[in-house]
Amino acid sequence: MRHIISLLMANEAGALSRVAGLFSARGYNIESLSVAPTEDTTMSRMTIVTSGSDAVIEQINKQLNKLVDVVAVMDLSEGEHLERELMLVKVRAQGDDREELKRMTDIFCGRVIEVSNSTYTIELTGEGAKLNNFLETIGRELILETVRTGASGIGSGERILKL
Amino acid sequence: MELTGAEIVIRCLQEEQVEYVFGYPGGAVLFIYDELFKQDKVKHVLVRHEQAAVHAADGYSRSTEKVGVAIVTSGPGLTNAVTGIATAYMDSIPMVIISGQVPTYAIGEDAFQEVDAVGITRPCVKHNFLVKDPKDIAATIKKAFYLASTGRPGPVLVDIPKDVSNQKAHFEYPASVNIRSYHPPGNGDGGQIKRAAQMLLEAKRPMIYAGGGVVLSGASGQLTDLVRLLGFPVTNTLMGLGGYPATDRQSLGMPGMHGTYEANMAMHHCDVLLAVGARFDDRVIGNVEHFAQEQRKIIHIDIDPSSIAKRVKVDVPIVGDVKLVLDELLGVLRSSRQKPDAADLAAWWKQVDEWRAKGGGLRYRNSSEIIKPQFVIEKLYEITGGDAYITSDVGQHQMWTAQYYKFDKPRRWVNSGGLGTMGFGLPAAMGVQLAHPGETVACVTGEGSIQMNIQELSTCKQFRLPIKVVALNNRYLGMVRQWQEFFHGNRYSESYMDALPDFVKLAEAYGHVGMRIDNPSDVEPALKEAFARKNDLVFMDFRTDSTENVFPMVPGGKGLSEVILAEDL
User: Can you give the residue ranges of every domain in chain B?
Assistant: First the structure.
């Protein structure tokens, strides 16, 4: 089953490689991984999307907690949470396609953030499924390049991961 | 006060009351060695290979309760140390390894003797640090000792670039450590401990399975009290030997691949299993699915939450320091009016004793013609009064020693259990002997393992370490040969050790005493003579039966009740 794990870790050199190394050494899946500093500059937030049986997910949580640089771990999938991903897509936009692509972007609540004679670059955020849906809708032949950040997640309401 | 980085390193070691560091100098640690030279509080033991430095620090730690310390230089110094670090990591041994690094300005430029030490060691340390500023050295070393010795212990590496060891900074050794992301468990959960107590009191076929965590946590007294209070059978793993007296009737010996029949059958058929500081590893419970076929409740006490429910389902998990948890569990049991059911327990013991009689797990056919390796260990046990510090290498001799040397006390048995590192025994014995100068220290080894670190005979000479090397020389990589005989159609691929050195001459060349023993009748006199030489290292080359196998044996991937006994073949 797919799980989205959120963690806070010390913003130390090599901290990211400890987490990535743990996943590869123990044979855990990583679907996506995103990391950036938080409002507390000594700490980074990492969001990992992984999958596995309940036993594997339990081990992942325990092993992450064992890393000295990891301050707190939360399996967001265990409760209500919000999930967003940012995608940039460059598409071939010529002739009739230009209008159609603009319309589709509007329907998906995206934005065209750069225009050239022959291309659009579209920005879209949402859950992974929505982004996939958008890509399917516009069709592979028009897509020149996609860049996705991987999921970021946050607990709903009072469900907070903070020190 | 302003000190150089190197001075700070040594001052930190002094503050930590480090008695010995084991190491090997090189370019990147020259400033540190210069400061070592200028003082005499921290004594340095010069090994002949960095792997041995780490094993020696490891042996020192295992036989005491102290943190072992090793210093190695950058590049090959560090890579040579990696096997030792991984060995300590797998067995949760508290150690601090200080490695030199190329100067900060050269890092990443493929400088001479540069290697990414933090990257290479990351999967086999509890934590590691690269110190880029001399003002961070003291706090980092303080953290390293704290991390190594608290919680589930383990090795911690501190990598120090050469320029950092030569720059000055203010020195003040921190009085305490606070790492916001690190909170080692202490007491276990009271409610869970009460549940465990109740489950133990209601058990009909109880079994206690005690691992290395008992030894590391210094809880053998508590374990012994618990086992006697409840009257239950107990088995100590390879890492846990000595955690409960092996000569006691309630001890069923070691479990696992080469464990006793009674220990394995009791593990398999019990209805309540109390696991203490043990991790249900593949060499202990064999096939997990097979183990799960029998219904039993499992109580698991461990300081590392990730050890619990890793391979088997656990009914009552208790995360905490084994010693503290056992103290509390003993309190609950002592204040309870309920006692284990005497009739149930008597019936269970009757069954256990039947297994003990049937398995007779530790039988071998002795010979008057050829030396049986088990016979040597039995005599070693007798002659040392069962009270020596014994290190071992890895292979058949290790298993025979674990089986036939009845350890009654913790920290007397020093071996590489998790990683299974050949070459561990001799350097580990050096650390043990330095920690216990007046005590008897023997290294049981084979002609294969000993050659992996035989250069340390030179270190033993330099530091006058009167270790007794008991080499069971069967001219084969015995455990490999055994598996080839059982599972690979007797095709002894590369397991024969041709062109062995004359170990007697070799020992003499290093300035020690060498003995060669070919006949069973000479085993006892030779051991007596060797152990009477209190001040000499004696290398005993026992020419043993090359066809002897280790029994009982649970073949890889099989279940605990699918054991092969000696008489089955």
Answer: 2-170, 190-359, 373-550
pLDDT in the model for residue B360? 63
Burial A57-72 (b: 16+ CB within 10 A, else e): bbbbbbbbbbbbbbbb
CATH code for the structural domain at A82-152: 3.30.70.1150
B123 touches chain A (CB under 8 A): yes
Whole-number Å distance between alpha carbons of B393 and B242: 18
- Asked whether the domain spanning B373-550 has the same topology as the one spanning B190-359, the reply is yes
Q: What is the domain partition of chain A in residue ranges?
A: 2-78, 82-152
Q: Quote the ipTM score.
A: 0.91
Q: Sign of dihedral through CA atoms B241, B244, B246, B250?
A: negative
Q: Which CATH number fits domain A2-78: 3.30.870.10, 3.40.50.460, 3.30.70.260, 3.40.50.2020?
A: 3.30.70.260
Rounded average pLDDT over A79-105: 96
pLDDT given at position B363: 85
| Nearest residue, CB atoms, A71 vs list B122, B123, B180 | B180
Report the side by side order of strands in the sheet with A43-51: A32-37, A43-51, A2-10, A70-75
In order of A20, B245, B470, B494, B538, the CA distances from B447 in angstroms are 41, 30, 10, 14, 15
- Asked if B122 lies within 8 A of A59 by C-beta distance, the reply is no
CATH number of B373-550: 3.40.50.970
Fold of B2-170: Rossmann fold (3.40.50)
Phi, psi at residue B393, to the nearest 5°? -90, -150
In this prediction, residue B220 carries a pLDDT of 98
Q: Which residues of B touch A58 (CB under 8 A)?
A: 309
pLDDT digits 0-9 by tens, B407-456: 999 999 999 999 999 999 999 999 999 999 999 999 999 999 999 999 99
Instruction: Please report residues of A whose CB lies closer than 8 A to that of B181.
Output: 9-10, 68-72
Measured in degrees and rounded to the nearest 5, phi and psi for residue B351 equal -65, -45
Read off the pLDDT of residues B510-535 as tens digits, 9 standing for 90 and up. 999 999 999 999 999 999 999 999 99
Decide whether A2-78 matches A82-152 in CATH topology.
Answer: yes
Catalytic, B162? Answer yes
- Average pLDDT over every residue of B310-319: 96
In what order do the strands lie in the sheet containing B206-210?
A: B234-236, B206-210, B272-276, B297-302, B316-319
* Full-model pTM: 0.96
* CATH class belonging to B190-359: alpha beta
Query: What pLDDT is recorded for position B569?
Result: 55
B370: helix, coil or strand? coil
Residue ranges in B396-547 assigned as alpha helix (H): 396-404, 425-435, 456-462, 478-487, 503-509, 523-532
Residue B359: predicted pLDDT:
67
A45-74: average pLDDT: 96
Mean pLDDT of chain B: 96
**Nearest residue on chain B to A72, judged by CA atoms?**
B181
